[in-house]
Amino acid sequence: MALGCGCVGQAVLSRGAHGGPMTVSVGFAMAVTIAVYVSGGVSGGHINPAVSLAMCVTGRLKWTKLPIYILAQLLGAFVGAAAVFGIYYDAFMEYSNGNLEVTGPNATAHIFATYPAPYLSLINGFADQVMSTAVLLLAIFAIFDTRNNNVPKGLEPIAVGLLIIALTCSLGMNSGCAMNPARDLGPRLFTAIAGWGMEVFTAGNNWWWVPIVAPMLGGVLGATIYIVFIEIHHSDTQPEEENDVYDKYELTNTE
């Protein structure tokens, strides 16, 4: 979150001089890649409650671990947002003359959390987040499925990063393509107490709940689609030795 929101902050606070949509897309994706490399061998590198829930629903993660995963993800996102605010504090103050605004030409709250485009309805935004997160989880299950055309061991996080670039480049216009409840709620909570106020929860026709609920549903949907239409149809004669990838990444083995 520090690197991802940092990309957005650099682009916004420089008024486009030091970044734009493409740097945000690539930067956020590479931030996720690094995060998965750092934490993948210990926790699976979910960094996303929608991923963790999908893993529980499909039997790849114990349900007793889910609250701990989500709490850690929220805490990490909150601290990451705080780090960006601290590093760019002077830039924030200069950008809007010391005012921390949620909407308007000098708005900066969207550096941390997602907000809908002016034309976007809640229903359309909900569908947007369900679809994008469903595609995310469907593709993640494929990337870590060693009985499919699996990614070479150790390169899975890079494949996830490329996936996120594709998603943000194609489905990011409506609301920023959150696809991650912790990525949105953690920083939103930080902005609420750091000076932006409770408007962060009322802006966009009370948008705040959409990037929390919709990705959770979309993640389960995408994982289920992959299992029903792809995974259960694999031949049972695949080489068993390829399954050693499961030992490292808890995305597929967290028992």
The string of secondary-structure elements, in order, is HHHHHHHHHH
Strand fraction: under 5%
Mean pLDDT: 93
Cα end-to-end separation: 27 Å
The residue ranges in which pLDDT falls below 50 over 5 or more consecutive positions are 244-249
Topology:
Elements: H1 2-13, H2 21-43, H3 49-57, H4 66-87, H5 89-95, H6 122-143, H7 156-171, H8 181-194, H9 199-206, H10 210-229
What is the gist of this entry?
With 255 residues, the protein is an all-alpha fold. The chain has helices at residues 2-13, 21-43, 49-57, 66-87, 89-95, 122-143, 156-171, 181-194, 199-206, 210-229. It is 60% helix and 0% strand.
Keywords, please?
10 helices, Aquaporin-like, mainly alpha, 255 residues
Walk me through the structure:
- The chain crosses the membrane at residues 29-47, 68-89, 122-143, 155-173, 207-229.
- Pfam families: MIP.
- It is found in: Membrane.
- It is a multi-pass membrane protein.
- With 255 residues, this protein is mainly α.
- 60% of the residues lie in helices and 0% in strands.
- The longest helix has 23 residues, at 21-43.
